[in-house]
Amino acid sequence: MLALISPNENNRICQVEQIDFPVAPPLEWVICPDNCTTEWTYNNGIFLPSALPVFSTADENKATASSLLSATDWTTIADVGNPQLSNPYLGNQAEFITYRNAVRQYAVYPVDGNINWPTVPTENWVKV
User: Fold this and answer.
1) Which H/E stretch holds residue 93?
2) Fewer CB within 10 Å: N-end or C-end of the chain?
3) 41: which residues sit within 8 A by CB, 6+ positions away?
4) What is residue 51's predicted lDDT score, i.e. its pLDDT?
5) Distances 103 to 38, 50, 78, 108 between C-alpha atoms, Å
6) SS3 helix, strand, coil % of the chain, rounded to 5?
7) Mean per-residue pLDDT for 2-6?
8) Partners of 126 in the beta sheet?
9) How do the domains of the chain map onto residue ranges?
10) CB count in 10 Å sphere of residue 57
C-alpha cells in the first residue's frame, strides 16, 4: 500500500492506494502498512493508527483536490485523446474527464471532513 503524504499539511495522509499515480509537489507517495487509512498519522517516517479521528479541513481538502487536478492536467490536452493527432493516443481520456469532474467538485466547493477520493484511472495508450 502507498500513502499520499502532504508535507505542507503537517504530513497529513491524504489518500491510501495500491498503485501510485503522478502528483504535484510537494505531495509524495510513501510505502505504508496494508491496513493504513487516512485517519492514521505519519511522523518521522512512522505510521501510527490515530486514537482520535482526524478530520480534514475544507482548506486541506481544497489543496488536495487542486494537487490531484494538477497531476492530471495533461489528460485534457485535445490531441492527447485524438487518434488523428497523436499516436499513440490516450484511449481512456473520457475516464480521466470523469475522474477530474469528481475531484473538481472539492476544489470548487471544498468541504470539511475526510473524503473518499476517487481513484485516478490507469493510462490506456492506444497505438494507431
Assistant:
1) helix 93-108
2) C
3) 11, 13, 47, 48, 50, 54
4) 66
5) 17, 26, 20, 9
6) 30, 20, 50
7) 95
8) 89
9) 2-126
10) 14
C-alpha 98/C-alpha 96 separation (Å) is 5
Q: How far apart are CA 100 and CA 122, in angstroms?
A: 13
The answer to whether residues 80 and 90 touch, using CB atoms and an 8 Å cutoff, is yes
Q: Is the pLDDT of residue 56 over 90?
A: no
Quick check: 124 and 89 in contact, CB under 8 A? no
Supply the pTM of this predicted model.
Answer: 0.62
Q: Which amino acid is at 87?
A: N
Measured CA to CA, the distance from residue 12 to residue 43 in angstroms comes to: 9
Determine the residue type at 58.
A
CA 117 to chain centre: 7
Rounded average pLDDT over 98-124: 95
Q: Is 94 a residue whose pLDDT tops 90?
A: yes
Asked if residue 114 lies in contact with residue 79, where contact means CB atoms within 8 angstroms, the answer is: no
* Polymer length in residues for the chain: 128
